Amino acid sequence: NLMFNLPDDEILPLSKEHVFWTWSAQAKVNPIAVKKAKGVYFWDVDDKKYLDFNSMTMCVNIGHSDERIIKAMQAQAGELPYAAPGMTTKIRALASKAVADVTPNKALSKILFTLGGADANENAIKLARGYTKRHKILTRYRSYHGATAGAMAATGDPRRVAWEPNLMPGVVHFLDPYRYRSTFHQSQANISEEDFARDYVNHLEEIILYERPDSIASILMETVTGTNGIIIPPSGYMQGVRQLCDKYNILMICDEVMSGFGRTGKWFAIEHWNVIPDMITMAKGLTSAYAPLGAVAMKPEIAAAFDEHAFESGLTYTSHPISLAAAVANIHAMREDNVLGNATSMGQVMRRMLNDLGESHPSVGEVRSIGLFGIIELVKDRKTKEPMTPWNQSSPEMNALKKYCMDNGLFLYTHWHTVLIIPPLIINEEQLKEGFDILDKALEITDRTVGG
Ligand code: PLP
Q1: What residue owns the CA closest to ligand 1's atom 1?
Q2: pLDDT for 38-65, tens place per residue?
Q3: Is the pTM of this model over 0.90?
Q4: Does 258 contact ligand 1 (Cβ within 6 A)?
């Protein structure tokens, strides 16, 4: 194809000339020039092969270059590449049903399609405000909900602070049930999971009362916290949040942008706790990132609140047919290959490998995982839990660990003092071992700082 003609060795220089990079100091970027990807691997323009332990951006759940999804998108592009938001199409009808059918008990049966995760959260917030006629949104400190103004206001982590004070008003943050670093339980290491969960539900109720329940539209939470630490809710916590929402007529919104679509072994992580939220926001794994797409799945009564007056919002590209074709084919492929089952069984294998690393490396403070959603927390001292990197910073040790992995063909994501392990859900035991063998060596770098 002459239109796309560019020699491999010119991709990087031409990109550096014209691309403006997100989340980066422009002069410091050093991107991988990716040429192709297949299964759990991708290759750069020098034919260097990488094992993908981050599913690119925690999103290529089905694995790379799945022909079924590519063909579905090609066919849709040939049949009808676009239709206006107020029209409907065969693929819009099918995709809405396909998404509704994977929600817990099929209870969230009305679907609003967006372009990604941030605008899914923006729209969920608008729906909650419209439905409840209240304005406040409660979210947690250790959270990321997206980079648009409302989603950024909802975000609890330091990415928000860079944009203050000009963000959406009305967000109040609360604390996460993060056992390893729970401020209030330092001297209660043996507290039961149920009591621990109850303390954090009580903390949330206290905040609800201070803020006045009749001003709170919604509690928005990552069901399992992603980049901020794979924080898995203790047993009883989600049930407790659901009860508070029912008690005070607050809508419960689960942000499953990262935790959804098989990541934890279920379509949505919230299924682990048998709770049905009022809305679920999703993106990433919804199409396995073959095309941009997000969605808000809502209970029909929320949609019905807009039966007689308009929902005053929209997107030119809502329900884009090519993205919807990717979503339908992705959901179909996940079913066909029992990807959820693989995430569960390989999740157990990964847990064993994580535990082994924890036992043999003194710099590992704690490992956590659910399905193929895992993290290693690195510390300088297991007793004090002093993180390998201070809050919101990088450190030479973590940079060296990351570099070792990348040099050895293991692509993964590190965040402050943590290493995230979020591979495509089709990974097998041998491929997991390939990555963990590299990690096993890489952790010798951080081990050297322990007790020294
Ligand atoms: N919510 C969560 C939990 C996420 O992890 C992300 C992205 O990383 C988002 C929302 C934002 O999604 P997007 O980047 O598609 O806007």
Answers
A1: 145
A2: 999 999 999 999 999 999 999 999 999 9
A3: yes
A4: yes
